[in-house]
Amino acid sequence: MSALLAGSLVAVAMVSSATPALAAAGKDAKSDTQYADLDIKAFGFSGKKAYIEVYGNAGETHGDDVPFVDDDGHGSAIAYVITIRTDTNEVQNWAIDSHEAQHGDSGVGVDWHGHRVHLGDNPDTTDVEPANCVNEVDQVVHATMKNKKAIFEDMKVRGNSGELENVNAVEILSAQTVLLDVEVADPDNPPAGTLCLALVADTFDTAN
User: Fold this and answer.
1) How do strand 49-54 and strand 40-46 relate by DSSP bridges?
2) Domain residues of the chain, as ranges?
3) Tell me: the pLDDT tens digits for 41-78?
4) Is the pLDDT of residue 94 over 80?
5) What SS3 state is found at 181?
6) Got the DSSP string for 8-62?
7) Is pLDDT larger for residue 84 or for residue 195?
């Protein structure tokens, strides 16, 4: 349900600047999805790190484990997504993913990594609302899967404007686990002019 992810992110973006909230940890009920590794239990901060905690084991369910019709041969990917508010009141979306179909030959397919992502319109279905196309990826952060937690490193770091380290999240507005339909051979290094790196194909769980 691609609209679920895009819709919730849009809704969060609309209300967050007008209604700031405390940066408390969020909790979510069990059995929202049949995949325990993608069933969100909680999310929050631990020191400079942000995390999504699941009822199963973070990172153990991959794209190949989920039934999926691959129309273009680029495979699918699982993503753990947080929407944050920064100290400058900017709403940002960050995802930890591992598109193993693209990196399997290089040996890094099991290395989950985090980056900021931007959602836009799918150029093939511009009439679909809200936007469900990941059309830009920037600002990479280290990410780890440890037991039940998907961990975003260095999400509360104050730096100079424009520096990679200048994220400084003050609040996590929502957390989600999703399936991405990868649209290019390597989403981290797409061809020039690529309009859509991946489509949000399904949403397993949402917590806010």
Assistant:
1) antiparallel
2) 2-16+30-63+73-207
3) 999 999 989 999 999 999 999 888 999 887 777 888 89
4) yes
5) strand
6) HHHHHHHHHTTS----PPEE--S-SSS-GGG-EEEEEEETTEEEEEESS-TT---
7) 84
Q: Predicted confidence band at 125 (pLDDT cuts at 50, 70, 90)? A: low
Amino acid identity of 180? L
Comparing CA positions, the residue from 171, 208, 196 lying closest to residue 119 is 196
Distances in Å between the alpha carbon of 176 and those of 48, 51, 162, 192?
Answer: 20, 11, 27, 29
> What residue has token string 């999703």?
178
* Helix, strand, coil share of the chain (percent; to 5): 15, 40, 45
Residues 6+ apart with CB under 8 A from 131: 6, 10, 119, 120, 121, 122
Give the pLDDT of residue 11.
Answer: 36
Q: Which among 63, 81, 70 is positioned nearest to 208, based on CA atoms?
A: 81
Distance CA 60, CA 46 (A): 22
d(CA 121, CA 118) in angstroms, rounded, equals 10
